[in-house]
Amino acid sequence: MNSAILHISSGQGPKECRWCVERLGEAFGKEAAAMGLACSVLEVTDDCASMLLKVEGPDVETFVSERTGTVRWIGTSPFRPNHKRKNWFVGVRQAPDPSDIAGFDERDITYQAIRASGPGGQHVNKTDSAIRAVHGPSGLTCVSQEQRSQFANKKTARLKIALMLEEQQEAEAGKANAQLWEQNLQVERGNAVRVYQGPKFKLKR
Question: What's the predicted TM-score (pTM) here?
Answer without folding.
Answer: 0.79
